[in-house]
């Protein structure tokens, strides 16, 4: 059996692939480097003078070899103890043997000079007297050496997720590696990490009551596992958990030491200035410390930040400058616009003096970020001047859509830019803390858009509790390592390929099927949003409501239930075929999210059906629907109980239907049971009689009659987003803006027929993008039969009612009415480009027969 890790797909630019090829002994070639043979085990050399993080990696690498083979290599630091086969792990800067090989011209490391986090993996014959062969892993720096070593670990069968997702190690009694000479590239994005957030209902109770029971908090033991995972994923930074329920990161002094032992950088959230967490009472207590108001309490606040930098300065950090209010709130005080600008200007000036004092270097050489999140974006737009060397970290709107990116002038800044993105969110209009349903293609669209406008300095993703965002994290770090590796097709297949490598290649098509439908169904409404309530909103939204999915029209609700049922059953069938030892990983990575989503939808939709049947006085059917809704509610609890109790309770406390602070979706909706009436099932499968389109049609976006691309625009159909899981993209966001009213410009044309009225109403559903940057907008045009163009412009304001609806349904609907000549046998629809990058996901044309549904009838009804 041969295992291949196609590293070059994401490590080497301009090459198709490069391979680390691992053999079992029976397939071993004479030229192979022998890691473990029947009678020999390679030694692992790490220089005592090298970085602590490299020593940590060498220790973990030795453990990885033992995990696979059952035999432990000897970890040595003396040349005299080298084995016949030796693995050398170290940095060019500090590893004596690597430097000897360079001097003897057996190893060329010029490509590593002055590089960031790159490495060489090379087999060398007869490197030293008594050593037959060496496998050298040389890093340009401490993390480069770690990434090289863990690339070998993954190739021999140790997944980065062996601990966090319980992916079994691929056992083999012997290991050999074909001769290799490989040099990695530096990562596309310099700083790549996660923000552990909203940990109140997952990571915190799991760590406090289970993994770090003695400490009773998220502490160094947990962070050791986090940091190891990040290194294995080729990440390099973590923003620690910072809610008030958790002890502040620096309240456990060992935690920062642990991070450094793994070479992981500490960064912080947008509301933690200079690493100071004012949400933790141990850090900031208003009774003790006064008001968090820089105008009134500058000396105390500045002293807190000064103390923190003094404590943290021996370690590698990225410092957030400026400030917000306490935790996730705005600046304190009833400040005018000018006062806000003046205060933050003063804060940043004072902070940079503190940094210079303790880091003993100019502020321009210290990594700093400014995060224009929520109200700080408004202050920035008011004219707040950010020092040129400080990186601007652009944020999404908490629902996956970048609010703005660097303008051409901002792209010239020496500090560059970055991104703060969300897989998990606590806030209005509704949180999504339970499952990760952010589609890879949406993430790719927004992050590559950011990258193309200069956001290559810093990528941070909010992953909540880490679990169950494993698949999202894997793709995030792979993308951050090499943006150019991916396109729309490969990004959409990435997770199914990962699952196929983990659970079996024969399931890859099934995995793609499950994932496509899992993300598609959550696209129109996430499982957490199915209660139709909102948080921190008007009273009418504070309790569970019936959904807008229809049981009467177009099988809107029925098809949703049928699709969820199918992929849930497909997941069950795969699980039954898997070996027992791999089923927990499958449950964590795929089965629980899929089955949980199905039952959450079933719970709400059948409760809705109950209320509708009660109104129709169909009480037997209503009773059945009520009971089935309760069965679904109980099923979710059983699924979650299984997650928390399997593997002897390893993850006990981790998985919960996180209620945020006021969500209701986790509750059982109200249903009505008629006493003395027997239950009788009602058909909830899709019915042909409800699938007819009369007096309207849906445009199949793939059936393009004509397309014209001008001004260098790119027109394409992309799969992996949209209500029907493919969509039309009108140009790339960075391409030239044009007049959308020009019917001779960039455009896509479709045909439709069957009109029996004198006018048609066109409903165009687009993705709820924000303008790329100042001076841009979100315009595209709509025309029927060559008539004057109706221009759609969906520029929205965050937290407005239209924006809330748009992010909850991942769509903006533009409605335009056109007169038509019904005598014509065929009509044309033209979509024109204005601001490139707009994505059209559904077009419905109505001439009097369109029935009410949630987001319009599906294109599948055309079949």
Overview of the molecule:
The protein is built from 19 helices and 29 strands. By secondary structure, the protein is of the alpha/beta class. The chain has four domains: 2-183, Chitobiase/beta-hexosaminidase domain 2-like (Chitobiase, domain 2, 2-Layer Sandwich); 191-486, Alpha-Beta Barrel (TIM Barrel), CATH 3.20.20.520; 515-690, Methane Monooxygenase Hydroxylase, Chain G, domain 1, CATH 1.20.58; 696-862, Jelly Rolls (Sandwich), CATH 2.60.120. It has an eight-stranded parallel beta sheet with strand order 13-12-11-18-17-16-15-14, covered by helices on one side. The longest helix has 33 residues, at 583-615. It starts with a strand and ends in a 17-residue tail after the last strand.
